[in-house]
Design brief:
Elements (H helix, E strand, L loop, with lengths): L1 E6 L4 E6 L2 H27 L5 H12 L2 H11 L3 H26 L3 H18 L10 H29 L3 H35 L3 H7 L50 E6 L5 E4 H5 L4 E8 L10 E10 H8 L7 E6 L4 E5 H5 L6 E6 L2 E2 L9 E3 L13 E7 L22 E6 L6 E2 L1 E10 L5 E8 L4 E3 L1 E2 L9 E9 L2 E11 L22 E7 L1
Parallel strand pairs: 3-12, 14-21
Antiparallel strand pairs: 1-2, 3-4, 5-6, 6-9, 7-8, 7-12, 9-10, 9-11, 13-15, 15-19, 16-17, 16-20, 18-19, 20-21
């Protein structure tokens, strides 16, 4: 803010000249906030999925190159979606500030830029899977409201600048107050309305109440965790991963709300008879429990994107049998309610020795929303991106040479069996241990054949066989441990597993893409005296 001093016969008045570009940028940001607030409010009333920020964020998820996706998961883990939304919000704020500055300098230029943003947001919304007939309304009305706000704010800013330039102190003061009141109150109102609408959108969903009221039939068979399956060692992962700690990696920026009373599963494609099942139809086929470990393809050697749970559900092969799969099919394309697809080898879903299921419960309760409520797929031995479709609503029986799934054109293999792996949970890098007897412990998995042994090498010495916990089954991971007489200093601990067919864990290092990482974990441990 610059000032000029105006002197008259009876008084001296200071006239403030505004930093017009900064206030114009602020006006642009407030106008964008109006756009988003109005769109969110209307979305809560007529189209819950029509949020511009979420739609644009989902579009970015779809188009971002694979290396950037992997980098985001590596840097932010399960907070990658929060980071993405923050980035989208920051980008929108910068663009809005530019629009405000342009509108001040070139009449209707900023309005045009804001309008282009609204058009892009509308396109992102109406092209999403599941978009309703009124999905266009929130972003269109929001854009109009933002445009009106920008025009009003810039008109008042120009009056303020003109009065200050003319050294008309009374007029400049009045115009300044009008501009600040307009933009300030509107900014506060936009935040209150926008945040309130998003909270209302989530809070008024009837799906939460439907899940709370859901009573699943008792499972016909249950999984018993055998004695000796889990050791209570500080830092060692439990054999059953609690729901709240289970990793989540998917492409959904917001968790889909699917009402089990309206959910339908369709089986189509290369089948003799297309099938459609309701939730009651599915659970009415009879439920059983299965202990299965899931692994994300983004899990690096020694990483934590893996978990084990007791799943309750129905074998997928039983549902496919109802449809009558045709003989030349070799792949099933599963689809989520949000449009995500996965390509699963047909043989993995029909094998009588594999527990590939439609899961409806996880560790004794209906599936958590973020893990696929009301129904998801669980397939042992395959990375999640080709098998573990959440919020599943359709299976298309087809062939690999006729269809491809979401991740295939993005550089990942169409088929992705899980690579046998082992990791050190304790002691951890950066956490020194005292000299003496130290327990080295971790996890190992080798689906679907099971782990035969785990070995540890200390400082490149001989491989020592560890003690394994009692396995739940071959489709679940196991714990392992070794007592070590630790001497002061720095030591390297390496681990490797062997499966029940005698195959040794792959030693060669491989990146996540195209079909999962490999290598023996080698970790540095500091022993204090």
């Amino acid at each position: 803010m610059t000032t000029d001093t105006v002197t008259s016969s009876d008084r001296t008045t200071t006239v403030r000249r505004p930093h017009a570009w900064l206030w114009a940028a602020f006006a642009g940001i407030v106008s964008a906030a109006v756009l988003l607030a109005v769109a969110e409010a209307l979305a809560a009333l007529v189209a819950r999925s029509a949020s511009p920020i979420l739609a644009v964020g989902s579009f970015i998820v779809d188009i971002v190159p694979r290396p950037l996706k992997e980098l985001a998961i590596t840097l932010f883990g399960e907070a990658d979606k929060v980071a993405l939304l923050a980035g989208v919000g920051l980008g929108a704020a910068v663009a809005a500030a530019v629009a405000g500055a342009l509108e001040y300098r070139f009449r209707f230029a900023g309005v045009g830029l804001l309008g282009i943003g609204g058009v892009l947001a509308t396109a992102a919304i109406v092209t999403r899977t599941g978009a309703g007939g009124l999905s266009w309304l929130p972003p269109v009305v929001g854009t109009l409201a933002g445009v009106v706000m920008l025009l009003l704010a810039i008109v008042r800013l120009r009056r303020w600048v003109a009065a200050a330039t003319a050294e008309n102190a009374p007029a400049a003061g009045a115009d300044r107050r009008q501009f600040l009141i307009l933009t300030g109150l509107t900014a506060v109102g936009a935040v209150v309305v926008g945040v309130g609408a998003r909270v209302l959108n989530a809070a008024t969903s009837s799906v939460a109440a439907a899940r709370d009221a859901l009573r699943l039939p008792a499972a016909r068979t249950t999984v018993t965790v055998p004695e000796g399956a889990s050791w209570d060692i500080d830092g060692l992962s439990p054999i059953i991963t609690p729901n709240g700690d289970f990793y989540r990696v998917d492409t959904a920026l917001t968790v889909p709300n699917v009402d089990p009373t309206t959910w339908r599963l369709s089986i189509e494609g290369m089948v003799d008879t297309p099938v459609e099942l309701s939730f009651d139809d599915l659970v009415g086929m009879g439920l059983d429990e299965y202990g299965v470990t899931l692994t994300c393809v983004s899990n690096e050697v020694g990483g934590g994107l893996v978990g084990n749970a007791i799943w309750t559900g129905v074998p997928i092969r039983d549902v496919l049998r109802m449809a009558g799969v045709q003989g030349d099919a070799d792949m099933v394309l599963s689809e989520s309610v949000d449009g995500y697809t996965a390509s699963t080898p047909l043989s993995s879903l029909t094998d009588e020795n594999l527990d590939a299921i439609f899961a409806v419960a996880m560790n004794g309760e209906p599936l958590p929303f973020e893990h696929g409520f009301p129904v998801r797929m669980v397939v042992p031995g395959l990375y999640g991106y080709v098998s573990a479709t959440k919020w599943v609503t359709k299976l298309t029986v087809t062939r690999f040479d006729q269809a491809e799934a979401y991740w295939t054109p993005r550089g990942y293999s169409a088929e992705a069996p899980i690579k046998m792996s082992s990791r050190v949970d304790t002691p951890k890098i950066g956490s020194p241990v005292a000299a003496g007897t130290v327990v080295i412990a971790g996890m190992a998995w080798a689906q679907p054949v099971g782990v035969q042994k785990v070995e540890v090498s200390i400082d490149d010495g001989d491989w020592q066989q560890t003690q394994l916990s009692t396995p739940i089954n071959d489709q679940s991971w196991v714990q392992w441990k070794l007592d070590w007489n630790a001497e002061p200093g720095s030591h390297y601990i390496a681990v490797r597993a062997t499966d029940k067919q005698g195959n040794l864990q792959i030693q060669d290092q491989a990146p996540i893409a195209p079909d999962g990482s490999s290598g023996w974990q080698r970790t540095l441990v500091t022993v204090s005296s």
